[in-house]
Amino acid sequence: MSGGDGIVTYRHGIAVAQLALFSAALFFAVYFRFGHRNGWFCIGVFSIIRVIGAGCMLGTINQDSDGLWAAVFVCESLGMVLIVFLLLEFLYRANKLVHTVHPRWFFYPQVLTWADLGLAIGGFAAASRNEQPLAPTQYTQASFGLFAGLYLIVVYTAWCFWRRLDTFPPDEKLLIRCVAACLPLLGIRTAYSLVFQITGDMTWNAVKGNPTAYLLMTFLTELGIIYASIWAIMRIAPPPRKQEKNKAEVGPDAEQGYALVDSGRESRERQEGNPRVESSS
């Protein structure tokens, strides 16, 4: 794929669709943020990354700049972990109501993410010194290998919840079904990156590879996950706020209890002949 010649290609058309649809997803993320709903951070940051990447791809129409291509490469390489954390956030909410798995299954992905981040930084540094900066390196191969392990952890965790699906309230059932529907799409997206990292075949490169493969295995899969999650979040009740949760834990008799304490204190003061109490009466 060339750039800077002013010609709009198939890949640029996909970038236009990304720009429009992920901008809409960003709007939903802002709405979820102010509505105190689940998923707003992961959906919002992921959408921002894809919007920036699409904008840089459109910029290559008139400017064949190494900086623009590098920005597209970086944006295409980022964001997958946010999808994983979005799905784990759904399962974490369900686990708080019906304890299904040990909390460590939500801790392991965080450890792998930090290791993956270190490998990704090393991969970008190695790519900048490589004659072919878009080619796989040992760092990027190890990074996507870790992500494949992260994906398997999410699959196992989701399977544990699926086995006990009947024990969950309706909202949490919907979230678990959403995760189950998104995992095959995430598997396709993961396979797309792994094939390129293993073979080095530029057909599977997200920046200058085959546009149809990118459309089917990257753009549509990511879009399906994000909008399936948005649909699920819109259909469930937002999680209780901390103030509401604390009030629920105290119970409806809390105010009555405080009134009894005050009245007891007042009666003792009357017995002791407190002038302030007598004057107030």
Mean pLDDT: 82
- Structural class comes to mainly alpha
Rounded Rg: 26 Å
| Helix share bin | over 70%
Q: Give me the oligomer status.
A: single chain
Characterize the main sheet: none
**Could you spell the SSE succession in H and E letters?**
HHHHHHHHHHH
Low-confidence stretches: 248-271, 275-281
- The tally of structural domains comes to 1
Query: Kindly, what is the distance between the CA atoms of the first and last residues, rounded to a whole number of angstroms?
Result: 89 Å
Total helix count? 11
Q: Which topology does CATH recognise?
A: Rhopdopsin 7-helix transmembrane proteins
How many DSSP E strands? 0
Q: How much beta, percentage-wise?
A: under 5%
Shape: globular
CATH class descriptor name: Mainly Alpha
Second CATH tier, the architecture: Up-down Bundle
Write a concise keyword list for the protein shown above.
281 residues; Rhopdopsin 7-helix transmembrane proteins; 76% helix; disordered C terminus; globular; mainly alpha
